[in-house]
User: Which sequence fits this backbone?
């Protein structure tokens, strides 16, 4: 039903177009010999206009089905392309297109002075198409800088508002390679537990690319995973993640450069590296250690507390068994070796905090 209605509309448009063509032909200066309509009687005018209308309607009626198929195919392809395009590219392209069309509108007035009307129309259309396409392509290619610019404007407004209220603006978080590869900081940011923006110095990104190109399969996999997670979070939260152009000084190591940048910008370093954590602490730079955050979020157990565990394998010492909590905490079961593969009730006897995490020693109940 809808297809028939659309075909009828297209046919009506063809009839109107043919009618208009006939009217134009009657008023056209034919070979310099006066207007064509002067050499024809009224019935000739009517026959010419009706013939043009009939031809236009017939052509539109016949071309409607293939035209609809092409339109549907193009619309489907456009929908797939837009669905696969990141939202940052769509926003940047739309802004670039609007800017290009605005510039074209101002320049199109220059074509009004052309002596030939159709040439003026062609020049105006060319200006609109050229500048619109140019603005869209430039904006998509420079989308990261465009997003950084708007994010900087937003950050300045937040800083002004915070200063007006007597509050300190949120500090930038400078990421190192280990934090990017670890990836847990991005989950914390998604949950909105960390304010401020995440700054990734370009030399950290370069180091991450070197790891992704490493001949060692394990290092290569870790580097590529870090790059993928960084790209995903940049697309999800473009206003929160920024790659900043900062150079290392001659002979300066990456860890020292990160501490210097964080100190100069009044920010803090986000890392999972033990040595960088200690270096930043010595230099008076604030550190957000993802491992410490994970340790603080683990389940708290107290001596004498009882719970049930699945004994998975034997421990290092004789008759010991090993189990794990849901957060990865290792449970050492005294006398648990004979019960490997079974679930048993245990009681906490002591806790041991190490650099790698917490170990819980229990006994069977």
Assistant:
């Amino acid at each position: 039903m809808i297809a028939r209605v659309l075909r009828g509309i297209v046919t009506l448009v063809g009839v109107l177009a043919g009618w208009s063509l006939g009217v134009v032909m009657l008023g056209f200066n034919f070979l310099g010999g006066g207007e064509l309509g002067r050499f024809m009687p009224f019935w000739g005018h009517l026959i010419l206009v009706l013939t043009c209308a009939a031809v236009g309607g017939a052509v539109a009626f016949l071309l409607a089905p293939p035209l609809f198929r092409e339109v549907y195919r193009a619309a489907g392809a456009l929908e797939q392309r837009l669905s696969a395009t990141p939202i940052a590219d769509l926003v940047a392209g739309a802004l670039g297109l609007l800017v290009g069309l605005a510039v074209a509108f101002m320049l199109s007035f220059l074509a009004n002075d052309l002596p030939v009307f159709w040439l003026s129309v062609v020049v105006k259309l060319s200006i609109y198409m050229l500048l619109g396409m140019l603005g869209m392509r430039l904006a998509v290619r420079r989308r990261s800088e465009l997003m950084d610019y708007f994010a900087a404007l937003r950050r300045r407004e937040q800083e002004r508002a915070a200063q007006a209220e007597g509050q300190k603006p949120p500090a930038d978080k400078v990421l190192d390679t280990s934090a990017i590869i670890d990836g847990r900081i991005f989950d914390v940011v998604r949950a909105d537990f960390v304010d401020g923006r995440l700054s990734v110095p370009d030399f950290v990104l370069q180091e991450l690319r070197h790891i992704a190109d490493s001949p060692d399969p394990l290092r290569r996999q870790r580097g590529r995973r870090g790059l993928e997670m960084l790209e995903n979070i940049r697309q999800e939260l473009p206003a929160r993640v920024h790659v900043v152009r900062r150079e290392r000084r001659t002979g300066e190591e990456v860890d020292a450069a990160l501490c210097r940048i964080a100190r100069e910008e009044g920010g803090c370093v986000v890392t999972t590296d033990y040595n960088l954590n200690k270096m930043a602490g010595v230099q008076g730079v604030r550190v957000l250690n993802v491992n410490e955050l994970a340790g603080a979020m683990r389940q708290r157990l107290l001596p004498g507390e009882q719970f049930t565990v699945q004994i998975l394998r034997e421990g290092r010492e004789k008759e010991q068994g090993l189990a794990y909590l849901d957060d990865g905490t290792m449970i050492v079961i005294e006398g648990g070796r004979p019960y490997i593969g079974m679930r048993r009730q245990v009681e906490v006897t002591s806790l041991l905090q190490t650099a790698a995490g917490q170990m819980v020693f229990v006994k069977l109940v």
Remarks:
- The chain has three domains: 1-72, 170-296, 306-364.
- The first helix runs from residue 2 to 26.
